[in-house]
Amino acid sequence: MSHVVDDAPLSSFHKKLALYSSGGPFVDGYILSIIGVAMIQITPHFNLTASEQGLIGAAALVGIFFGAFLGGWLTDKFGRHLLFTVDLIALVACSVAQAFVNDAFWLIILRLLIGFAVGADYPIATSLLAEFTPKKWRGPLLGAFVTMWFVGAAVAYIVGQFLLTFEDGWRWMLASSAVPALIIVLLRIGTPESPRWLVKVGRYDEATKVLKRVYGPNVTLADLPEEAGECVSVGQLLKSGYGKRMAFITIFWTCSIVPLFAVYAFGPAILEALKLGENLAHVGSAAITVMFLVGCLVAVFLVNRMGRRPLIIHSFLWSGLALLAMGLFPDADSWIIMTLFAAYAPLIGGTQIMQWVYPNELFPTEVRGSAVGLASSLSRIGAAVGTYLVPLALTTLGIGPTMIIAGIITLIGMAVSIVMAPETRGMTLGEAAALPGKTPAKASLSQRVAN
């Protein structure tokens, strides 16, 4: 079988697609981080209770829960191309609307809708990127996808600190997410449909045109790598052999993001509780964001060299130990606390990039978007609950027990990865998605075209 597509060199098309696709996590990181800074002004402005603070912080995560699953289902049913641009238009409108809210209720509703739009973008963008990218570059580019989350978070802290100097600066903070979202929408216009998806729905002529446009005039459908022969519907997904894979992805994803999202939503409050001064807490939040980005970049470098399985296990282990140390010694000197926080940030990077590598590699094209969306949705249940409980935990339990709980959750992710994490390094999408004992059917594509 030809390997023209899977072994293609990394082209300018692939680089642009990776950049445009990563716009979703950039906006997500921006939105989930800017709220942490904005809450400094929002809390006294609306006289918020700890419960209301938690609801505002968690609302976007709840929206992601619904949006990711629906977006995944829609992209499998109607294709990646159309939804790739449409889903972010709603995000622009809701972001601007946040500037005009006059009570906590409507702010929660708008954060919920924004999360819905962000969640829908994840399975759409990652499915499109995975299905175009050569196997050598699939892990690094999907891993690099999540690094933009931390770029967005870092930018949010910078913008937020500047706007804090203005009265009602929180309104401008929340509305500002419309700017990158609009830019991303404009850049994505003209992106072609996935040829793998076009083949799955029988649109062979269109698939051929896309292949020639992206890979060269001599490339045909015969050069498109085969995938697993069986067709798995969304309804059959959990009942089939893919149910175990869905369980693994959901559990490790949840264990990875529950502590991280809590840190981002209430980073300054957590650092202040660890007895850092207010100014140092805000500066520390921005510095730790940079360390998160560094960790993801290192993980992108290691994902092919180290392998998927060792990377995720070690990432969970050492980051979990850093959180436990913070919980056991909350009264340590400020430089020790900052060192431990700075250690957690880069060490968790391996689990962050695998959130997008594993789901896109372990499921076939016909349900890839739905599987990614479902896993993203299920993981957000724990993340939303965790984010909601952070201010309550800080008030009732204190910072030490709160950080110990975060460490235990992280180490649970390590244990699950030891038992369930597969190794997919060097595999084609078809090989990675095939269930154990089954291989991609080489003749199936030619037979479907002939029929």
TrEMBL record:
<feature type="domain" description="Major facilitator superfamily (MFS) profile">
    <location>
        <begin position="17"/>
        <end position="425"/>
    </location>
</feature>
<keyword id="KW-0813">Transport</keyword>
<feature type="transmembrane region" description="Helical">
    <location>
        <begin position="54"/>
        <end position="75"/>
    </location>
</feature>
<feature type="transmembrane region" description="Helical">
    <location>
        <begin position="283"/>
        <end position="304"/>
    </location>
</feature>
<dbReference type="InterPro" id="IPR005829">
    <property type="entry name" value="Sugar_transporter_CS"/>
</dbReference>
<feature type="transmembrane region" description="Helical">
    <location>
        <begin position="141"/>
        <end position="164"/>
    </location>
</feature>
<dbReference type="Pfam" id="PF00083">
    <property type="entry name" value="Sugar_tr"/>
</dbReference>
<feature type="transmembrane region" description="Helical">
    <location>
        <begin position="402"/>
        <end position="421"/>
    </location>
</feature>
<feature type="transmembrane region" description="Helical">
    <location>
        <begin position="107"/>
        <end position="129"/>
    </location>
</feature>
<keyword id="KW-0472">Membrane</keyword>
<protein>
    <submittedName>
        <fullName>MFS transporter</fullName>
    </submittedName>
</protein>
<keyword id="KW-1133">Transmembrane helix</keyword>
<feature type="transmembrane region" description="Helical">
    <location>
        <begin position="311"/>
        <end position="329"/>
    </location>
</feature>
<feature type="transmembrane region" description="Helical">
    <location>
        <begin position="170"/>
        <end position="190"/>
    </location>
</feature>
<feature type="transmembrane region" description="Helical">
    <location>
        <begin position="17"/>
        <end position="42"/>
    </location>
</feature>
<feature type="transmembrane region" description="Helical">
    <location>
        <begin position="246"/>
        <end position="271"/>
    </location>
</feature>
<feature type="transmembrane region" description="Helical">
    <location>
        <begin position="370"/>
        <end position="390"/>
    </location>
</feature>
<dbReference type="InterPro" id="IPR036259">
    <property type="entry name" value="MFS_trans_sf"/>
</dbReference>
<feature type="transmembrane region" description="Helical">
    <location>
        <begin position="82"/>
        <end position="101"/>
    </location>
</feature>
<dbReference type="InterPro" id="IPR020846">
    <property type="entry name" value="MFS_dom"/>
</dbReference>
<dbReference type="InterPro" id="IPR005828">
    <property type="entry name" value="MFS_sugar_transport-like"/>
</dbReference>
<feature type="transmembrane region" description="Helical">
    <location>
        <begin position="335"/>
        <end position="358"/>
    </location>
</feature>
<keyword id="KW-0812">Transmembrane</keyword>
